[in-house]
Design goal:
- With 207 residues, the chain is of the alpha+beta class.
- Helix content is 45%, strand content 23%.
- Strands 1-2-3-4 form a four-stranded antiparallel beta sheet, covered by helices on one side.
- A hairpin with a 4-residue loop joins strand 6 and strand 7.
- It is elongated, with a radius of gyration of 21 Å.
């Protein structure tokens, strides 16, 4: 198997443009809102207010699009694992422009599969709006030099496409153990809703 497995959401030029279009409404709110506020509270002439409104629109889009489309992910093949990680907004913004311009992507680190000691499969909880609780899968790659690479894959396509199982089979074929404390692996072969329900029940049983 020579295919490359991607775990996480890899941004593309197409996805950036799609997100830009999707968030235009929010950009317009930022721009028009700024224009209206300036007209109401200041004595600036109309042209100046329009220019500042346009700047506010651009600023809004430059904030929301990178945050929406640029996320951590890993690429793995038969010999190596490449971790794409973004620690702050400026890195996300730079990556957005590099992808649009077709330039070489930054913030990536490749390791040989022979350097991986084991992989821990688990999950973490997080709080959403209205005090709702969400759950995210955690993959922790423990390396032989005692360093750790942790990723929280976004999206549900990895479950639908069985990418997790492809990843685990590839690693096990390389004699890399998968530590599955919560027995999540079988559930990752089903559906996103089954996974959420399974974790919810597991949380109840832990209490």
């Amino acid at each position: 198997m020579n295919e490359k497995i991607i775990i996480g959401k890899k941004a593309t030029r197409k996805s950036i443009i799609a997100n830009f279009i999707a968030f235009v409404f929010y950009g317009l709110i930022g721009g028009i809102g700024t224009y209206g506020l300036l007209k109401f509270v200041s004595n600036l002439n109309n042209n100046v207010c329009v220019y500042i409104g346009i700047i506010a629109f651009i600023a809004t889009m430059l904030i929301v699009v990178p945050l929406a489309v640029i996320t951590d992910y890993i690429e793995i093949n038969q010999t190596s694992l490449t971790n794409h990680s973004y620690n702050n907004y400026l890195q996300m913004l730079l990556e957005t422009f590099l992808i649009l311009l077709g330039k070489k992507q930054q913030n990536k680190k490749s390791i040989n599969l022979n350097d991986i000691k084991n992989v821990e499969l688990s999950y973490e909880t997080f709080h959403m709006l209205w005090a709702q609780k969400g759950y995210k899968i955690r993959l922790k790659f423990n390396l032989k030099n005692n360093s750790i690479i942790t990723i929280y894959p976004s999206g549900h396509n990895h479950i639908k496409n069985r990418d997790y199982e492809k990843l685990f089979v590839l690693l096990e074929n390389k004699s890399i153990p998968i530590i599955d404390k919560y027995n999540l692996r079988p559930v990752l072969k089903t559906t996103p809703s089954n996974l959420v329900n399974y974790i919810k029940n597991n949380e109840i049983n832990k209490k």
